[in-house]
Design a protein that fits this description.
The protein is an alpha+beta fold and about 375 residues long. It has 2 domains: about 160 residues; about 180 residues, Heat Shock Protein 90 (2-Layer Sandwich). It is about 60% helix and about 10% strand. The protein is built from 11 helices and 7 strands. The strands form 2 sheets. The chain has a 5-stranded mixed sheet with strand order 2-4-5-7-6. The protein is elongated, with a radius of gyration of 33 Å. The termini are far apart. The relative contact order is 0.07.
């Protein structure tokens, strides 16, 4: 009995088992949603190709055991080698492909040394082993081990990048929260409340409670992904307006015409818009006749929310947002789009600025 032939058959079976562990649902290749999808796809193709190659090699070994020295054995061996080479090429693509699906040139980029080592080291050991025992073909099984190691490192690298992204998102959220709280606004409000304490202590106490509720709504709104009733957002707007109007020197009027109120919107969808209309619109007038108007109306399957201010010569709110440290029109637009499919549009002219928000009616 040819014991070397039996060993080669067992090695091929072992390699097939390793690859099946990668392809079987719930295992490493498909058990994580955090792995780079582009790399996962090419790794899947490489593993599948090598699984097919090992199956051919196994068939060739069995055929050689039953019918030695036939053309079929050689043909199967050649086909298997071609598919084996294809698997290697696909694996190389898998190693160097980036998150966008493009092959990256090693110059100026982070070279995946660990993944390259995993791809090269087992085959090198297998070749050295074959020099000592030429009758035993361990190279193809070694490549199956390489694919398993490559996949494990890709998963580890994806987890690391995900953690880095989450850390950056946490820092970004912290900056947004800090900007949304706005220390200068709090300082001005507290200073106005302090002045009010000497003349009207009850009004001062009311405004302290108002400031507390305003800050709580700001912080809760930034981390919330749920829609809230319009009246709740309107309450937040009124809290802000009340705080701005504590100082008698900050003269402006705030009015609203609400044709519809029974709908939901993301938190902090309107208050930041009203705030910018006050700061950069109504308060830009020196005559004390600044005005901000909030309106709602039903337009087909949508609710149109308009924030108007009569600032002098109009204000380019998009430019103001880019230059300011507030939550920003762009962030408000992203929240509207992602949470309810809403849109935001800004129109400025010599009469003032209109910021128009469109949100679908409830159930659409």
């Amino acid at each position: 009995m040819n014991y070397y032939l039996v060993i080669n058959i067992l090695l091929n079976i072992f390699g097939i088992v390793i690859l099946f562990l990668l392809l079987f649902p719930g295992t490493l290749l498909f058990g994580s949603h955090r792995i780079n999808r582009k790399k996962q796809k090419y790794l899947f193709f490489s593993v599948t190709a090598h699984l097919f190659a090992l199956s051919i090699f196994l068939s060739s070994e069995i055929a050689a055991y039953l019918i030695p020295d036939t053309f079929l054995n050689k043909a199967l061996l050649i086909i298997g080698i071609c598919i084996f080479i294809l698997s290697i090429i696909i694996a190389v693509i898998c190693i160097f492909i980036n998150e966008e699906g493009y092959l990256t040139v090693p110059k100026g980029m982070h070279i995946p040394v660990a993944q390259i080592s995993c791809a090269v080291l087992p085959p090198i050991i297998a070749i050295l082993f074959s020099m000592i025992f030429p009758e035993i073909t361990i190279l193809y099984t070694a490549w199956a081990v390489s694919l398993h190691m490559i996949q494990s490192l890709i998963l580890v690298d994806s987890e690391r990048k995900l953690q880095e992204t989450e850390q950056k998102m946490d820092l970004t959220m912290g900056k947004i929260l800090a900007n949304q709280i706005r220390p200068h606004f709090i300082f001005n409000s507290l200073s106005s409340i302090e002045t009010l304490c000497h003349s009207d202590s009850e009004a001062a106490a009311d405004n302290i409670r108002n400031l507390s509720a305003y800050l709580r709504s700001n912080i809760d709104g930034m981390v919330s992904e749920k829609l809230i009733p319009f009246d709740e957002e309107l309450k937040h707007v009124r809290q802000y307006i009340a705080l701005e109007q504590i100082d008698p020197a900050r003269k402006f009027r705030f009015n609203y015409e609400l044709d519809v109120r029974d709908f939901e919107i993301p938190a902090l969808s309107i208050q930041p818009i009203v705030e910018n209309a006050v700061k950069h619109g109504a308060l830009s007038r020196d005559d004390g006749n600044g005005e901000v108007l909030l309106t709602t109306e039903a337009i087909g399957d949508y609710i149109r929310i308009t924030v108007y201010d009569n600032g002098i010569h109009g204000v380019d709110m998009t430019k103001v947002q880019k230059e300011s440290n507030g939550i920003g029109i762009s962030n408000t637009a992203r929240r509207l789009e992602s949470l309810c499919g809403g849109t935001i549009e800004i129109k400025s002219d010599e009469n003032g600025t209109r910021t128009i928000i469109m949100v679908p009616r409830k159930g659409n």
